[in-house]
Amino acid sequence: MQGLSPMGNRYRYLIVATCMIMSLFEIVCCSQKVGSCNPCKDFLGSGDPHVTGCLSPQKFLFDPYFGNYDDHIELKIKDLIGEEFLLSESCEEAVHRLRSLFKLTVIERHLIGEGSHRRLLSSLKFDCPSDAISVLEDHFCEAVVIERLPLGVFADPFELSHLVQRGVFQDAAVFGDTNLELPSALSNQSIVEAHVKIGIDNISGQNRGLEVSIELPLHIRYPPLGAGGGYLGIEMGRLQALVRCRSRAKPSQWILFGWDVKPSSSLVWQVPRGDPAHAEFVSVITFVSALVSALLIFYSAISYHSLVDNSKDS
């Protein structure tokens, strides 16, 4: 079988050039570069947990309560888990021992990356007492963050599941709207719960503090068009931070600590959006480019088969 003729090669190059022009046009007209946001520190007051107690074993804290509250976005930790506490004598002893280990000093939140696919990094920092190593050796502990995602922002459950398999998270789940194909105007809010293991490796050697970082991959749905285009600011929801531990000797019960975090400043995701005035122009150019490309592909296919038939006849 012989290769394409010079004319066939020219058509092939023309197709590639057309596709490159279409991609370049889309990048220039429909996207702008968005930089990372400055870190956002959340105010905690004394840092002592607002909620302490013991819970029966369950994989996700939010799972039993999803669907029982009309307003998940304003749900507080006490409403979420307070009714399940088991204040037994053994629980009070365990809480007393672990309480000093988890005095939260600061939470920092960053949006990492650019464009429509970014990562929300939440860093929890605790004061670390002298017996921290022995306590962590006797207990299995994990940090839990519950993120209320605003309209237009979503987490991919399949991506989170892959991160769990890789050991990045202990567990992770999305509650609420998990339809990834819906545009922003038709979507609903969702909640992400992610768990990260806390161990001796999390103890900082410099200040003997305990640091835990949780990095959530998030994505933006296509925002509605706005007059003049520009950017649409999407404010990230309020974080709920918790820590839960269970004794390695008696793993049947979780000891839980929770903080109601008060944001000192907002964390805003600036999203580029299109201008309705450009919609018709972009649609026409896209249609014409797609039509020309389709015709060229069709013509190249016919030319190729003609060349093959001629080579067989000769």
From TrEMBL:
- Membrane topology category: Single-pass membrane protein
Q: Decide whether keyword Methyltransferase is in the record.
A: no
**Short name of one Pfam family:** PIG-X
A GO-annotated cellular component: endoplasmic reticulum membrane
Transmembrane ranges, per UniProt, are 281-302
The pathway noted for it is: Glycolipid biosynthesis; glycosylphosphatidylinositol-anchor biosynthesis
Top-level lineage group: Eukaryota
Member of which family? Belongs to the PIGX family.
Q: What is the name of the protein in this document?
A: Phosphatidylinositol-glycan biosynthesis class X protein
Q: To which species is this protein native? A: Acorus calamus (Sweet flag)
Lineage, uppermost ranks: Eukaryota, Viridiplantae, Streptophyta, Embryophyta, Tracheophyta
